[in-house]
Write a structure and sequence with these properties.
The protein is of the alpha+beta class. The protein is about 20% helix and about 30% strand. The longest helix is centred in the last third of the chain and has 19 residues, at about 165-180.
Length: about 180
């Protein structure tokens, strides 16, 4: 009985100690204004902010990609106006990425609700160190977010997304060329 009470008491102490650790996450500023790069419509045209979307993905290991959520919870946002510049607020990553080098991939699209269904798409990838945000815990107040600037490497130039039928025809043509070459 005493042994059971001692085990239970130690679990309670360990549980309260674990809950007193702060929740520190990676954070990045989801703005293209600092980098000077924007979403550019096909052929250099202006974008329509009502139908153009941007989302940021990240990967700590380079293999598994997750969507960055804004501090408001959104996973995609639109450019501020037809210039193509955007400001999605703070992007929150997970706890394993605070102040660490992270792989980022930004996607922009128009003509569909998702990147996969869009008629025009653009994508850039790079690595940079994320910022940190101590969101607090039950025993300590939240700190101020310290995001890093989004280090875009160029404009997101929208181009027509290849349709599955176009890709299939290309593969059939390549197969026919290989067969012909063997004969």
């Amino acid at each position: 009985m005493k042994k059971s009470i001692a085990i239970l008491a130690s679990l309670v102490v360990l549980g309260s100690a674990a809950s007193s650790f702060a929740d520190t996450v990676g954070v990045v500023n989801l703005s293209s204004y600092d980098s000077g790069f924007a979403v550019i419509g096909f052929g250099g045209t202006a974008v329509d902010p009502a139908t153009t979307y941007v989302q940021l993905l990240y990967s700590a290991d380079g293999n598994t990609w997750s969507t960055v959520a804004t501090s408001g919870g959104a996973t995609k946002w639109s450019p501020d106006d037809s210039s193509g510049y955007f400001d999605g607020g703070y992007g929150i990553l997970d706890t394993d990425t605070a102040n660490k080098s992270v792989n980022f991939k930004i996607q922009a699209w128009t003509g569909g609700d998702t990147y996969a269904s869009a008629t025009y798409t653009a994508e850039l990838a790079w690595s940079q160190t994320s910022g940190s945000w101590d969101r607090g815990s039950s025993t300590s107040p939240a700190g101020t977010p310290n995001p890093t600037t989004l280090a875009l490497t160029g404009n997101l130039n929208l181009v027509p997304a290849p349709e599955p039928s176009t890709i299939a025809l290309g593969l059939l043509g390549a197969g026919a060329l290989l067969i012909r070459r063997r004969k």
